[in-house]
């Protein structure tokens, strides 16, 4: 179990203890321990056999040590599982609803013994929440007072449903890798591959679809043994269905996984089918029928005699359908089938095309590493250039730079650049676009920068008209090179702010200001649809990680995936350019 999973159990325990009305000291001890473990640089699993070292961790005393030992020994924590039994696991779902905290949940429980989302929704509709006795805390009074608060709760439940059960791409990928690792080298298992939305690189993933093939899949006894092995997977919470060719289960954290077992001769057909998307599959099946074939998860077969003509690989299926191979990222039925027929699919950008990453923070503001550390990491990554782009002063909680500190920072960046070989360090800034559209540093400072990323970090609730004007003003500023994370959304957490995207893209094309594709898995912004629109307007893209730590640099691949989903080629993306040309594009437009 990794630190994140352990912290998760402790956080849940804290919330459940609070619902249970336990004393606040005890509750806090679980939260503190969870905070420390989550931030720990090394894995607690590596330390657990050295109790002295565990006790040195802040917030972990003898009692918590015993809890951790129990988790590693038993795979669970009895306080946690007992409370879950008492209140039912659905209680954890309730905690995810905005504005619904443990105190209110406890109140609802004690009045109605309801602990699930549907139940709370019903109570709110029936006006039964507003009559609950009010608690001491202001927040709770607000929630419980009157009809308006019930409406707010219903809205929060609606929001929760929209995002519930979906996961960020990197979370899904990590879980898939664990499953693949668990099956690697198992006798009779040849290939284990993710399919579904993860393989297509969708920005969020609903459930994991994992395909397994090899000898162990073709024989009843071997398959049963294989399933017995699969369900020993650490972090598996419950088995949802166990069948002959498939096992479905839920992982801690709620993600559902479908693992399917396939004969090698159908592996390609199954990959094609279970990669989807559904819309792509429907269109492809219609094409097959027109050509006298049926396409299923087992094969592509002739209608008249049901004889398979393809199935072992995806490539042969597409080829038999007289189509160029369609990369998974494009399979959304958005024109890719016609393009494949006409040999007109774009040569999609790949990660190796990128020559640099130009959005990074350091300890000078809210990053964790120094200029040199970031630059060395970028060089190790194989980049020819990178930029340090710390925040500006409007972002006070990030200790943003004012004019004076910005100038000193430029000096430090230049000095680091002189010291380091084989990588060009550009001096840059991520400057706030203030509410009125002006930039947060003076022109004379911005002029000295190689890369100016202008971003919105405040006043998200402006009217669409105001926000559009604000962004247009930033685009028109001659110092702006890139608009950072242009819609400001945080996946599964915060919606994009509203503005006229067409107007902003038009202006960006005119002023030759690039749009960022922020590769950080919480953002992935611009999204695939907006990227395609940007390309139509002739706007160039820069793919950046927005790294706050050297370990974030590798997240660039999530950005590349989104770029591919948007049909982008190397030519659409500025940081595929060599160093000098890129520098020129940042200062004077491409
Ligand atoms: P997700 O899990 O919501 O992120 O999205 P997907 O695309 O992974 O969808 P999922 O897990 O329901 O199904 C995996 C793939 O299986 C899907 O992309 C296409 C295929 N599939 C599932 N149900 C159907 C169906 O009813 N018809 C067709 N043609 N394909 C289906
Ligand atoms: Ca799926
Ligand atoms: Ca599925
Ligand atoms: Zn930012």
Brief write-up:
The chain is α/β, with parallel strands linked by helices. The chain has 26 helices and 17 strands.
Would you give an account of this structure?
This protein has a seven-stranded parallel β-sheet with strand order 11-12-13-14-15-16-17. Helices cover 45% and strands 13% of the residues. The protein is α/β, with parallel strands linked by helices and 590 residues long. It has 26 helices and 17 strands.
Q: Would you identify the regions where 5 or more consecutive residues have pLDDT less than 50?
A: none
Indicate the overall shape.
globular
CATH architectural group of the largest domain: Alpha-Beta Barrel
Bound molecules: 2'-deoxyguanosine-5'-triphosphate, calcium ion, zinc ion
Alpha-beta classification: alpha/beta
Task: Provide the CATH topology of the largest domain.
Answer: TIM Barrel
Number of strands: 17
Mean pLDDT: 94
The CATH superfamily name of the largest domain is: Metal-dependent hydrolases
Sheet having the most strands: 7 strands, parallel
List keywords for this structure.
single chain, 590 residues, alpha/beta, DNA polymerase, domain 1, Beta Polymerase, domain 2, Beta Polymerase, domain 3, 7-stranded parallel β-sheet, 5-stranded mixed β-sheet, globular, binds 2'-deoxyguanosine-5'-triphosphate, binds calcium ion, binds zinc ion
